[in-house]
C-alpha cells in the first residue's frame, strides 16, 4: 500500500488542490469563465468540433480531454496498471453516458465545473451540487439493493488502446486542420468564432495540463462521484478529501487572480432556474453512480484499458449531439425548449436500469 | 478456514460492497478477496481496515491480486 503515495489521503488532497489551482489558472489563460476544466462541456465541444451537433458557439477540439486519456494511459503503463478489460454491460453504460451528458448540460457543467462554479462565486452551483449529491444518493440505494452491471473480462491490449487511439486521432486532426482566425471550419473540423467554444487556452498548454492531470488522476483514482458515493454509502471520506481540496484551492486561486464574483444572476455560462439546476445534476449524478464514475474518472479509466468506461465516454459525446440537436441543453438564457422533458425521460430510463439490473446472488 | 470473495471483473464499488458483506455476515476468521485492478486492491484494503480488520497480505494472483483479511 505504501508504494502509491497518490492513493493516500494526502495524495488525493494534493491532486484535488492541483486540479483546482490549474483549472482556475486555465481561465486566466483563455478558457471560459468558471470553466477552466469541465469534462461534460469539453466533450460537448469535441462533439461540436466533429459536427455531431452544429451549435456554433460550442465547437472546439478540447486538448484537455485528449490529455486526460493519454496521460492516464502513460501512468497506467509506467506503473504496470494497464488492464485491458471489456464486457460489463456496454450498451447500458452507453445509455447512461447519453443521459449523464443530457443532465449535465441542463445544469451546464459536470461535477468538476459545478465545483469550479462554486469556487468562482456562482451561487447556482449550490443547487447543482445538491442535485448531484441527491442523484448519487439515489444511486447508492440501488447499489445497496444489489444493482450490478456484471463482470468485465480481460481482453486484448489493443482493445484497451482504442479510445486512447481515438483521442490521438482527434489530436492529429487538430494539427492537420488547425484553427484559422475568422473561419468557422478548418478542413473537417468546426471551430467556434464566438461563445465558450471560441475561448480556450493555447493548444500546447491545454494539452500539457491535460496530460499532467490525466497522469495524477490515474495514480490517485480521483473521482467526484466516488467522493460523494463513498461518503454516503460507507461513511468514507478518502475521495471526499480531494473533492473539498479542489473547491478550496480553486476558490483561493480565484481570489488571488480576481476571478471571484459572488452572486446568482449574470454568472458565466450559467442560468438561474434553480429547480432545473438541481434536477439536471440529479439526473447526471444518478447516471454517474449507476455507471461507477464521474465523467473525469471515466476518461482516466478509459486510459488504463477499461473499454466499458470508454463506451460511457462515447455515450456522453453522442449525448451532447442529442442535447444540442434536440434543444435539450440550457444556455445562459435558461432551459432549452425540451430540457424538462429530457430530464424526466432520463430519470425514467435511469430508474428502469436501476430497478431491473440487480443480481439476486449474494452481493447486496 | 478462509472465505473467498471473488470480485474479479467487477468495478467499484462492488468489490468493497462484497467484502463488507462478507465481513459483516460471514463467520470465517480469514477472508481472501480476489480483485483484478489496483484501484480495487486499494479500496478493499482501505474498507477492511475501516472495519477494524487487518490486511495480512496481498499477493499477485493471475492478472490481479489476492488480499488476505483477518477478522478481529
Question: Mean pLDDT across all residues of chain A, rounded?
Answer: 96
Tell me the name of the CATH homologous superfamily of chain B.
Answer: TusA-like domain
Mean pLDDT of chain B: 93
Strand content of chain A: under 5%
Distance between the termini of chain A: 27 Å
Structural class of chain A: mainly alpha
In the CATH hierarchy, the architecture of chain B is 2-Layer Sandwich
Element-level helix/strand string of chain B? EHEHEE
Instruction: Write down how many β-strands of chain B occur, each being a DSSP E stretch of 2 or more residues.
Output: 4
Report the order of strands and helices of chain A: HHHEHHHEHHEEHHHHHHH
Q: How would a crystallographer describe the biggest sheet of chain A?
A: 2 strands, antiparallel
Distance between the termini of chain B: 15 Å
Features:
heterodimer, A: 364 residues, mainly alpha, two-stranded antiparallel sheet, two-stranded antiparallel ribbon, 4 strands, 62% helix, globular, B: 72 residues, alpha+beta, Translation Initiation Factor IF3, four-stranded mixed β-sheet, 2 helices, 35% helix
Set down the secondary structure blueprint.
The complex is a heterodimer of chains A (364) and B (72).
Chain A: H1 9-28, H2 39-49, H3 63-78, E1 85-86, H4 90-107, H5 111-119, H6 124-144, E2 153-154, H7 157-160, H8 162-176, E3 185-186, E4 189-190, H9 203-220, H10 224-234, H11 238-257, H12 274-291, H13 295-303, H14 307-325, H15 339-356
Antiparallel strand pairs in A: 1-2, 3-4
Helix pairs in contact in A: 1-9, 1-11, 2-14, 3-8, 3-9, 3-13, 4-12, 4-14, 4-15, 5-6, 5-11, 6-10, 6-12, 9-13, 10-11, 12-15, 13-14
Chain B: E1 2-6, H1 14-25, E2 30-35, H2 38-50, E3 54-61, E4 64-70
Parallel strand pairs in B: 1-2
Antiparallel strand pairs in B: 2-4, 3-4
Helix pairs in contact in B: 1-2
